[in-house]
Amino acid sequence: GSSDDLEQAVLNLLVNARDALAAAGGTIRVRVGPFRADGLPAGVRIEVEDDGPGIPSSIRAAIWEPFFTTKGEGRGTGLGLSVVARVVREHGGRITLDDARTGSVGDRPGTRFTILLPSVSPVSPSVVNHRAPVGQVVLVVEDDEEIRESIRAELQTRGYQVTAVASAEAAREAVEQGLRPHVLVSDVVLPGQDGVALAHHLCERLDGLRVVIVSGFIPQHAAALDPDWLRLPKPFSAEQLATTVRRAILADPRLDAMGDLPTQEG
């Protein structure tokens, strides 16, 4: 990772805090300083704290997953915290969530995110696990820029060569210009031609292409899916993304059963 990545990660925390305070107002505090802790090398502590309504315990585990959001339709993709966590891990650090206030009754609990970063960043274990087989090319088709870049980053982190485009038309053009992907990862709902039709089109032209169909709208398209394709229903974690792409590459027929993965509408 780079210092630009870290700057963007902290900015994401600030934007989330601002959104949490939008209804009733409040204060955001950022603290930066040195830290020493058992089991961790000396480094830097970054805290982003607000005095807003806090995060309910019922959704605390879910906030780190890609595509989780508490915002309304069309407002954000919920990728902020998964991106923050990935960047922190890539720098060898860790991030925790706490209530900012545990004091008097009636106080809003607030939210405090604490990032601990070592002075020297080791290679993250998550990068070592799920490494891509050498030279594997993945074509990602997703029209939402933030989701597309998150998928690209997760797969590149694991060693894949990734080309990411926003439409079926752009995907077809890339193949016509010589791109030879081993795996297609495509959302179903795209501007113009949909992802299922795109996958059929590319499979006719690229022998042995493996397909991962990503969507929360799978049931409506189930009849058009090839039984050899894998599907990845939203929402999914970074780990599920990496595992599914690796399964597609390994093409193990024991893992290809469509029913192995739950469908989720929405």
Provide an overview of this structure:
- It contains 8 helices and 9 strands.
- It has helices at residues 3-20, 80-90, 125-128, 145-157, 168-176, 195-205, 218-221, 238-250; strands at 28-37, 40-50, 94-98, 111-118, 137-141, 161-165, 183-187, 210-215, 230-233.
- The two termini are 33 Å apart.
Give the structure's gist in a few sentences:
This protein is of the alpha/beta class. It has helices at residues 3-20, 80-90, 125-128, 145-157, 168-176, 195-205, 218-221, 238-250; strands spanning 28-37, 40-50, 94-98, 111-118, 137-141, 161-165, 183-187, 210-215, 230-233.
Major sheet: size, sense and barrel closure? 5 strands, parallel
How many strand units? 9
Across the major sheet, the strand order is: 6-5-7-8-9
Residue stretches low in confidence (pLDDT < 50, at least 5 long) are 73-78, 121-130, 252-266
Strand composition percent: 15-25%
Mean pLDDT: 78
- What is the N-to-C order of secondary-structure elements (H for helix, E for strand)? HEEHEEHEHEHEHEHEH
Secondary structure tally, helices: 8
Shape: elongated
Helix content: 25-40%
Distance between the termini: 33 Å
- Whole-number radius of gyration? 20 Å
Structural class: alpha/beta
Summarize the SSE layout with pairings.
Layout: H1 3-20, E1 28-37, E2 40-50, H2 80-90, E3 94-98, E4 111-118, H3 125-128, E5 137-141, H4 145-157, E6 161-165, H5 168-176, E7 183-187, H6 195-205, E8 210-215, H7 218-221, E9 230-233, H8 238-250
Parallel strand pairs: 5-6, 5-7, 7-8, 8-9
Antiparallel strand pairs: 1-2, 2-4, 3-4
Helix pairs in contact: 1-2, 5-6
